[in-house]
Amino acid sequence: MSRQIIAFPKDGNIYTEQLYAEVEKGGVAVVEGVWSSRWLMRNLRRGDLIHIHWPSFLYFDSKSRLRTGVRLMTMYAKLLFAKGRGATIAWTAHNLYPHDGGSGVLSHRLGRRMMVAFADYVCVHGASAGAIVSRELKVAESRLRIGHHPHWIDCYPNLLTRAESRARLLVPPDDFLYLFVGRCRPYKGLEALIEAFPAAPQPARLLIAGNFSSPQYLEDIASLARRTPRVELVPRSIPDDELQVYLNAADCVVLPYREVLTSGAALLALSFGRPVIAPDLGAIRDQVDSRCGVLYAADQPRGLALALQDIRSRTFDPAAIITHARRFTWSPLAGLLLDMP
Fold this sequence. Notes:
It contains 15 helices and 12 strands. The protein is of the alpha/beta class. It has 2 domains: about 120 residues, Rossmann fold, CATH 3.40.50; about 160 residues, 3-Layer(aba) Sandwich (Rossmann fold), CATH 3.40.50. Helix 12 links the parallel strand 11 and strand 12.
């Protein structure tokens, strides 16, 4: 009986859906895993590949340490069962630690140790991310599988022109539009972005669009935005078909992360031909160069402000940026899974 890949998760996330569609082109079936002992006993076969993306969703309960502890123990038991059944286990390290609490949360430290102990292979997006995971989580290089985060070209609608997009957002044609779009969470550094924005040459606007992680965080950012001229918030989830409005209206996308291992947002910007401002951290340094953005030293106090200025003195070719993004295809990433023994 041929191998199958059991994915946690397969559906409900555009990254995993695109990845496994490419895997299935290679003739390997991918099934949506159910994190249940009974399901695993019935469906897991010797030689199957279990592929886990975000293990904290399998154990972490933000409202109960007791439930988190119980789920950690059951996670250990299930991984132990899978190894005993003869399965291969792969973990894609999308982040070094979960963003909710990070390494400061004991359960996350234990969860990472568990994944490193049981995973036959740890997949990462880029050599820089691989070096970080190897150093910080003590993963042997022989167990690392290095790919690149793929582009998002043709994954989202992209039919609107710059003029049409700006008309929808009421952005004047001559204003330089700095954009942040995506989930708004504290580690993404929105406070630093708003505080740095007055240093940007005028005329300019800053638009922050996305769903906020908590009402309190929204109020903190909204209060700061109200005190900063020409900053606008759109505090809601942006549907897939609306992303083109924001990205095509923007002159650049700013990702002021405090910490980052992998960034799908950087590839999203590049997929729309938009240059990126971001810290010189993690996989971003493997995705963005001087032809498609500005990287700044995250530990430099005025690094972000200077980058907001620097990008205004440069000229970027949207078509060349999209060509750059096209180098990061889904095929090599799928190949990592298909080639695992």
